[in-house]
Specification:
It is a single chain. The protein has 12 helices and 2 strands. By secondary structure, it is mainly α. The protein has one domain. Helix 2 runs parallel beside helix 7 and helix 9 packs parallel to helix 11. It is globular, with a radius of gyration of 21 Å.
Length: 236
């Protein structure tokens, strides 16, 4: 009597592709992402504490009054720094990674240029945040200046578009693409819910981040786009 060998589950092509992307140039991705963020914050904090021109206070809108103060949203707000690492982390080739870093750096420069010539801040909210964990640290590092455009939102939308592009190209399930959008929206709302930004800052950040994400998708190095899921599955 013949015994049939147990069937070995085959990984979906998108899983193999995702795994390959995350493993490729892992150390370089971690170090490079950390370096870009660090350099950006050097310029950001310098302009925050030494504005070159008079600071404009951003006005509140009716939409701002609809968003309640939610100190619990601080965790979501801080999750951006994990989220932004996913974009470069999913790039397949070295040239794609370099191109991604270049566009992200240009986004940083654009934001800093705006902050230099047009320093802004959010209006005082009059809320006592001292009882809430993490807010003292946040105010010490990321004060109410450099408000418009919200670079928090700009980085979030840039990352969301680029992550979504990868998930679509590798054939990831709809649930993953939806999770990407939900995380992005949660980060955007959190900037309002903890009173770090006002609605006009958010709209400006969305416009800036979307602009650079669109450019980065239009001008990028070629890759194994069409055949990638099957190729990754055979190699993974």
């Amino acid at each position: 009597m013949k015994h049939s060998s147990p069937s070995i589950p085959v990984r979906p092509a998108w899983v193999a592709s995702l795994t390959l992307r995350m493993r490729r140039h892992f150390a370089l991705k971690v170090v490079g992402t950390s370096l870009v963020i660090a350099v950006f914050f050097v310029g950001y904090l310098h302009l925050l504490h030494h504005p070159a021109y008079p600071v404009t206070v951003m006005p509140l809108t009716a939409l701002d009054r609809l968003v309640p103060f939610l100190p619990q949203a601080l965790f979501v707000y801080l999750s951006l720094w994990l989220y932004v690492g996913m974009g470069p982390g999913l790039q397949l080739t070295l040239m794609e990674l370099i191109a991604y870093a270049a566009w992200a750096a240009l986004l940083c420069v654009a934001g800093l240029v705006v902050f230099y010539f047009w320093p802004t801040q959010v209006p005082p909210h009059g809320l006592d945040v001292s009882p809430h964990v993490g807010f003292a640290m946040l105010q010490g590092v990321d004060a109410a200046g450099n408000a418009c455009p919200s670079m928090h939102v700009a980085f979030a939308v840039f990352s969301s578009i680029r992550i979504g592009d990868v998930l679509m190209r590798i054939g990831a399930p709809k649930s993953m693409r939806t999770a990407n959008i939900v995380w992005f929206v949660a980060i955007v709302v959190s900037t309002l819910a903890i009173r770090q930004h006002v609605v006009l800052d958010v709209f400006a950040g969305l416009a800036l981040g979307t602009f650079f994400a669109a450019l980065s998708l239009r001008w990028r190095p070629g890759s194994l786009r069409a055949q990638e899921p099957h190729w990754a599955a055979s190699r993974g």
